[in-house]
């Protein structure tokens, strides 16, 4: 399929979207005339109003799509002085594929490379070209692998694939804007949803063909081995980047910290875990093709590459980082552009890890301390509160809530795990230990001499009354003071909580609320507004205000404060929540209630079952 054909297909399909709208407008008008002749004006208005509103959404979607500019993505623009090798390779490859070189190269934080062109007149006239190169690719790949990636992207230019970026972008945007503004209960929405699926199937099929066309350039200019290995490296590298962000970065980010050299840390992880990444690359399973994919599966692309004629290209196993004058400096500059630190404290990786892991352990300890406070009635609970339960023989009774499938005796013994967390927290709070960064494994708790500390054995002694004194003596020898380990966050907040669902216009204790379902609790927004605008209101709300701010601004009910849930009816939902302080909260879904996502009710029911179990 040529670029010209895709241009025609994209334009025709987009025009068809609005032809469907005009046909429906004519149908609505005819229905209005018929209704007005057979009923009164009030009935006509009630029937036609939602249909007219839906058609108005089409006009708004088109207008916004036309006005939206496809601006370049943020990144670090590198000149020939900052990236001499990269620019030399790009120019050489551009000449080889028969296209002009990009006007600028931007380094971006993604495990990806891409090209864009700010074309005009629906792609008939070319414009400024930008080549995006993910810095993680330069950190992880060999030069020949990166050349393969670059040749593929430049192949999109030579095939005029980027000319249609504006058309495809605006088409998808127009359809998305329209569907977002039409209620899923509106029959006009059903028609547009069906057409949007057809549009995406046609456009995605063209996109997949273009990827295979661009792969020809990869094989010709980098060789089959480099092209295939680069392709298989991408998902493994993407997984490594995701692991790096989840395991190393996000815990500190949640604690209002940020590493001072984000990409430098990723480079360290790549070096320390290179064997794991290699194994992941070699064992990545091939998935089945899907009509909704914009790219063919890797297995399909590799098989197609094997059938292509390859050029006589010598391997170049030097690290791709050599294509930049100073990759460390480039990484710090890129971080300054794409990472909004806000008020977070920037720390070197060793300090960042020590502080972020300590904050996470404190958060786990706080959950146990709050439970101990509720159980004992003690204000400002801490490790001594839990140790007093051990001393008095009440630990099993307290620990039952953490191990619902255990007897009191079993729960007491199994509490050695949580007790180790409390002791680790106490060791750090006492200033005798800290968490040591490791790029090849989890952070380790180490003592003043830098040697690992394992407090598991002391934790086992600390959960039994008869050995508690021995445990306390061992702690004293290590300089750990239990009285210094107390609760920091005396009530769960919405900080760093994730939104997992939402319901609009739910009656709670006889007043309507919007309910945001977080992974830590419920945000209850009283007197939210009209039920007919519930889904739209929820989308605008969660898209414009941070979840933590919403939890602080409105009533926040943490799950840990709920003792039990009695579900009276699942659809429409009706339940009673009994809290630790004895209050009962009645929750009832109305016929006019709306869901943010169709699974939101089921999500809330799963939360309730987890509390009950």
TrEMBL record:
The chain crosses the membrane at residues 7-35, 47-66. PANTHER family: PROTEASE HTPX. Residues 129-305 form the Peptidase M48 domain. The keyword Cell membrane applies. This is Zn-dependent protease with chaperone function. It is a multi-pass membrane protein. GO terms for biological process: proteolysis. It is found in: Cell membrane. Keywords: Cell membrane, Hydrolase, Membrane, Metal-binding, Metalloprotease, Protease, Transmembrane, Transmembrane helix, Zinc. It comes from the Bacteria. Its main location: membrane. One of its GO terms (cellular component) is plasma membrane. Its cofactor is Zn(2+). The lineage of its organism: Bacteria, Bacillati, Actinomycetota, Actinomycetes, Micromonosporales. One of its GO terms (molecular function) is metalloendopeptidase activity.
């Amino acid at each position: 399929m040529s670029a010209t054909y895709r241009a025609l297909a994209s334009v025709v399909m987009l025009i068809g979207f609005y032809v469907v709208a005009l046909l429906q407008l004519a149908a609505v008008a005819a229905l209005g005339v018929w209704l007005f002749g057979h009923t009164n004006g009030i009935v006509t208005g009630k029937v036609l109003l939602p249909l007219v509103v839906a058609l108005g959404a089409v006009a708004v979607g088109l207008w916004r799509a036309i006005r939206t500019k496809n601006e370049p993505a943020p990144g670090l623009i590198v000149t020939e002085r900052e990236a001499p090798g990269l620019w030399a390779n790009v120019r050489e490859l551009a000449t080889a594929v028969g296209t002009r070189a990009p006007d600028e190269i931007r380094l971006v934080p993604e495990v990806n490379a891409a090209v864009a062109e700010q074309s005009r007149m629906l792609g008939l006239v070319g414009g400024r070209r930008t080549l995006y190169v993910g810095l993680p690719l330069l950190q992880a790949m060999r030069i020949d692998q990166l050349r393969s990636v670059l040749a593929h992207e430049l192949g999109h230019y030579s095939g005029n694939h980027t000319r249609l970026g504006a058309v495809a972008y605006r088409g998808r945007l127009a359809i998305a804007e329209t569907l977002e503004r039409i209620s899923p209960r509106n029959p006009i929405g059903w028609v547009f949803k069906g057409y949007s699926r057809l549009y995406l199937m046609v456009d995605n099929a063209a996109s997949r063909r273009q990827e295979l066309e661009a792969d020809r350039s990869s094989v010709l200019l980098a060789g089959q081995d480099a092209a295939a290995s680069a392709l298989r490296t991408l998902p493994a590298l993407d997984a490594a980047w995701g692991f790096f962000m989840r395991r190393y970065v996000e815990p500190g980010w949640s604690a209002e910290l940020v590493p001072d050299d984000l990409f430098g840390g990723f480079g360290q992880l790549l070096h320390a875990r290179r064997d794991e990444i290699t194994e992941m690359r070699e064992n990545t399973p091939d998935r089945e093709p899907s009509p909704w994919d914009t790219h063919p599966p890797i297995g399909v692309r590799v098989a197609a590459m094997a059938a292509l004629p390859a050029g006589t290209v010598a391997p170049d196993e030097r690290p791709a980082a050599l294509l930049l004058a100073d990759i460390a400096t480039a990484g710090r500059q890129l971080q300054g552009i794409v990472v909004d630190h806000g008020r977070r404290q920037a720390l070197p990786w060793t300090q960042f890890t020590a502080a972020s892991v300590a904050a996470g352990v404190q958060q786990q300890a706080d959950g146990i301390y709050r439970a101990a406070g509720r159980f004992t009635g003690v204000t400002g609970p801490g490790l001594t509160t839990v140790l007093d339960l051990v001393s008095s023989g009440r630990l099993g009774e307290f620990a039952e809530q953490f191990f619902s499938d255990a007897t009191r005796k079993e729960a007491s013994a199994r509490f050695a795990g949580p007790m180790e967390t409390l002791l680790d927290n106490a060791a750090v709070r006492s200033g005798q230990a800290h968490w040591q960064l490791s790029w090849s494994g989890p952070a380790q708790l180490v003592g003043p001499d830098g040697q690992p500390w394992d407090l598991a054995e002391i934790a086992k002694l600390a959960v039994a009354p008869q050995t508690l004194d021995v445990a306390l003596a061992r702690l004293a020898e290590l300089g750990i003071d239990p009285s210094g380990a107390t609760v920091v966050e005396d009530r769960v907040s919405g900080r760093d909580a994730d939104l997992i669902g939402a319901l609009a216009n739910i009656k709670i204790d006889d007043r309507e609320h919007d309910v945001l379902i977080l992974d830590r609790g419920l945000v209850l927004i009283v007197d939210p507004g009209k039920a007919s605008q519930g889904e739209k209101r929820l989308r605008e709300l969660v898209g414009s205000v941070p979840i933590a701010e919403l939890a602080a601004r409105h009533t926040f009910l943490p799950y840990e404060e709920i003792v039990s849930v009695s579900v009276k009816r699942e659809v429409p939902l009706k339940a009673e929540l009994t809290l630790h302080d004895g209050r009962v909260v009645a929750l009832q879904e109305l016929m006019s209630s709306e869901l943010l996502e169709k699974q939101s009710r089921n999500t809330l029911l799963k939360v309730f079952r987890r509390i009950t179990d």
